[in-house]
Design goal:
15 helices, 0% strand, mainly alpha, Ammonium transporter fold, disordered C terminus, disordered N terminus
Length: 442
């Protein structure tokens, strides 16, 4: 008969369920320790995975820049991007992290101690692996350096650029970062920058702007009569791929800046950050498309790509608090600002090859100013204080470094090398050897 068997199965299932519910009751004393360990694991996991996404942005910058320069300079941009990432990691380990985070205590600068030692500070149940935090912070430094790379493309020599990256990643970036994220004086003053519209993107933008002014424009970019001569990029599909990679990596950039995944509240916050980040980028694309259609009678793909990045930079200062609708608006304003700033730079005869200054500097400022629109704990005054103080610091330091490099080893390649292309002149190779062998028409 099947009836007794069913009764036995039901009794067995009941016993299993009773045991399952009984175990937590018997282990209530151990529950806090278990939960603490689980939070530690998830927090560390968040740092590592989101950090890996941000590292993937290095590939995005490389592809974007490789698509927006001419073929004769493509390999140089690839070299600059992989080498600046390597330099950023080494310098941030040697000195940068300590300057930014160790012993700031409301002041202006951290420790000048050499080499980051995770055991140097007492472990007071931080809730995450210290080296996972170091990794997450390091990939942000490389992003700031990548911004400079694109602006100064096609006419800067490799070694002066690398020396500037060494100083940017070991001193300039960490010192201003200590003012806010390291618990320094700007943090005490109420300045807020969730994931780095100012601390990362505007820093790279200021350094790039100063470098572009001191370096000068590419030969032939601006005519004697003030005419702007377009120098279109060689591979727009590659630039589009780079933009999508950056868009994906930005979820790590903003989502990881929640700095925790050990609770349901953290998981919900990261989800909201992802949505707002995505919608801000979408708003930037649509706004850039509409504005270029109105201004030029045609939609400009490169402006649409920069519109996406502009929206991403703009939402980075506060991706958690806005409603999704406000995130779209913040991103759309960023897209408009990027489109407007490009011709303004041309009028000022500032040559920005990839449009990094409009995207990262201008939209970084806008995103930082917009924080009080959704975050009641901030004020426009404190936000402006952070924008101006960091802008002045980075501009002065960058000016000194660029000028020293210019008057010692020189920063610009010769006219002959620029005409030939930096791939052959500086690297002795070509990214596309079958396409005309460095023809002057490229």
């Amino acid at each position: 008969m099947t009836f007794p068997k069913n009764i036995l199965k039901l009794a067995g299932a009941t016993a299993v369920l009773a045991g399952a519910f009984a175990v937590p009751a018997l282990a209530q004393d151990a529950e806090p320790a278990v939960n603490s360990e689980i939070a530690y694991i998830f927090n560390t996991f968040s740092f590592l995975v989101h950090g890996a996404l941000v590292m993937w942005m290095a590939a995005g910058f490389a592809m974007l820049e490789g698509g927006l320069v001419r073929t004769k300079n493509t390999a140089m941009q690839m070299l600059k991007n992989i080498s600046l990432y390597a330099v950023a990691g080494i310098m941030y380990y040697l000195i940068g992290y300590n300057l930014m985070y160790v012993g700031v205590d409301g002041g202006y600068i951290g420790s000048f101690s050499f080499l980051y030692d995770p055991n140097a500070m007492p472990d007071l149940d931080t809730g995450y692996s210290k080296m996972s935090d170091w990794f997450f912070q390091m990939v942000f430094v490389a992003t700031a350096a990548s911004i400079v790379s694109g602006t100064l493309a096609e006419r800067i020599k490799i070694w002066p650029f690398m020396i500037f990256c060494v100083i940017l990643t070991s001193f300039i970036y960490p010192i201003q970062g200590a003012w806010q994220w390291g618990g320094g004086w700007l943090s005490e003053a109420g300045f807020s920058d969730f994931a780095g519209s100012t601390l990362v993107h505007s820093v790279g933008g200021w350094a790039a702007l100063v470098g572009a002014i001191i370096l000068g424009a590419r030969k032939g970019k601006f005519g004697a009569d003030g005419r702007v001569n377009p120098m279109p990029g060689a591979n727009l599909p590659l630039a589009t791929l780079g933009t999508f990679i950056l868009w994906l990596g930005w979820f790590g950039f903003n989502g990881g800046s929640q700095l925790a995944l050990g609770s349901a509240d953290d998981a919900m916050a990261i989800s909201n950050i992802y949505v707002n980040t995505n919608l801000a980028a979408a708003g930037g694309v649509v706004a850039a498309m509409l504005l270029t259609q109105i201004m030029y009678g045609k939609v400009d793909l490169t402006m649409a790509l920069n519109g996406a990045l502009a929206g991403l930079v703009a939402i980075t200062a506060e991706p958690l608090m806005p409603t999704p609708l406000l995130a779209i608006i913040i991103g759309a304003v960023g897209g408009v600002l990027a489109v407007i700033t490009v011709p303004l730079l041309d009028k000022l005869k500032i040559d920005d090859v990839v449009g990094a200054i409009p995207v990262h500097l201008v939209c970084g400022i806008w995103g930082t100013i917009a924080v009080p629109l959704s975050n009641p704990d901030t004020s426009f005054g404190s936000q402006l204080l952070g924008i101006v103080s960091i802008g002045v610091f980075v501009t002065v330091c960058s000016t000194i470094v660029w000028l020293v490099l210019k008057f010692t080893m020189g920063i610009r390649c010769s006219e002959e090398d620029e005409e030939m292309g930096l791939d052959k002149a500086e690297l002795g190779l070509e990214a596309y050897p079958e396409f005309g062998h460095g023809s002057k028409s490229m």
